[in-house]
Design goal:
The chain is of the alpha/beta class. 36% of the residues lie in helices and 15% in strands. The strands form two sheets. A six-stranded parallel β-sheet has the order 3-2-1-4-5-6, with helices on both faces. β7, α6 and β8 form a beta-alpha-beta unit. The longest helix is centred in the last third of the chain and has 19 residues.
Length: 371
């Protein structure tokens, strides 16, 4: 099958300054690995990306990546919702080449373009589970209440979580009841042989990730249970100095290691050797770090906010509990049942498995509707 994947926004930028950080490679992004899954399963893949996400260094890819110039950037910031006339023309001129067009999220011009030009070939892989807060939710509500039913009514939608399913089915009828998660590169994210006395946090150092709360709870854990534990914080962001001060307040400067942004190959060994990943976010959709961590055989201690936290509990791959504390940290670090469940279920999150699920759902849809 010849598949076109539309994913203009390849990684998260600043939603306040609209700045898109420059990177040296796209190979650590979720969608790149999902495309690898399609390729490994025998399909031909083309990935469409906004020009603003082109890496600073030239690199060789495992499949074709095409970059498209964004227009009207002041109105449609590329960090949020890129608008590209070049992409519209590309889809229009090449639609007959592709058997399937996979578009990321309904709230996207790329999805709108594909739905207009090739609705019977378009599958919308949808992540969003609630209305975006910008401008009092007005743009979001307009897209979902007006644009989606008008333009996307003939497209198949595959949600990325149960929460995304419950949200998008309010606005579109052709929604698969089977969620398909983000696919993980299993050659990089692998279980380790030893668990060290350490926890890990994988997050941008920004307010909504609520890392200061985790640092405080880790401080309580050190006092009550084991002062030898370490906390690795993987990520970059404007709150680094503030969080370093938080570490001083709980007398854990020597126990907390800020690594900065790491490549997948450098992050994976830290994740696989950790007792658990900690999450206490204030706002999130699907967190790709969750399936990455499960693929490493490491359980997760999280609140219920991430939209893909439900299967952590269902698969026994960790603890989902609002207002978790140091006692829950001790419990997850000392019960091998959770890490064993992660190893048992890791195959479900590999990119090849998730890509296969999407194709199966699409084939069933095509056969059912005689398209």
């Amino acid at each position: 099958m010849n598949i076109l994947v539309l994913n203009p926004v390849m990684y998260t930028g600043s939603l306040t300054t609209y700045e898109i950080p420059k990177v040296e490679s796209l190979k650590d992004t979720m969608m790149y690995n999902m495309c690898l899954g399609f390729k490994h399963n025998g399909h031909k893949v083309t990935l469409a990306v906004a020009e603003e996400y082109r890496p600073v260094k030239e690199e060789q890819y495992d499949f074709e990546i095409v970059f498209f110039k964004s227009n009207f950037k002041r109105i449609f910031p590329p960090v949020i919702i890129p608008f590209s006339l070049e992409l519209f023309k590309y889809i229009k001129n090449n639609k007959n080449k592709f058997n399937l067009i996979v578009a990321s999220d309904a709230f996207s011009f790329a999805s709108i373009f594909a739905s207009i030009i090739a609705p019977t070939k378009t599958l919308i892989w949808h992540e969003i589970a609630k209305h975006q807060r910008k401008f009092h939710q007005i743009p979001s509500k307009f897209i979902y209440n007006v644009i989606c039913p008008l333009i996307m009514r003939n497209c198949l939608v595959v949600p990325r979580s149960h929460d995304a399913y419950n949200f998008i089915r309010k606005y579109l009828k052709k929604v698969s009841s089977t969620p398909v998660e983000h696919g993980i590169n299993g050659n990089v994210f692998r279980p380790g042989s030893i668990k060290e006395k350490q926890f890990v946090v994988i997050a941008q150092l920004i307010k909504r990730k609520n890392i200061s709360s985790i640092i405080d709870k880790f401080g309580q854990f050190l006092k009550k249970y084991d002062s030898e534990y370490k906390l690795y914080i993987l990520g970059r962001g404007p709150l680094k100095e503030q969080l370093e001060e938080e570490a001083k307040k709980v007398h854990a400067t020597k126990n907390i290691i800020f690594t900065g942004q790491l490549t997948h190959s450098k992050a994976a060994p830290i994740i696989s050797s950790s007792a658990a990943m900690l999450i206490d976010t204030l706002q999130d959709n699907n967190m790709v770090s969750i399936p990455e961590t499960i693929a490493c055989g490491t359980p997760i201690l999280t609140n219920s906010i991430p939209t893909n936290s439900s299967y952590i509990k269902d698969l026994n791959c960790g603890i989902v509990k609002d207002k978790w504390n140091e006692d829950d940290m001790f419990k997850i670090a000392n019960d091998n049942m959770y890490s064993e469940s992660c190893v048992k279920n890791r195959y479900k999150f590999l990119c090849e498995h998730q890509a296969e699920l999407i194709v199966k759902i699409w084939d069933n849809y095509i056969n059912k509707n005689n398209l």
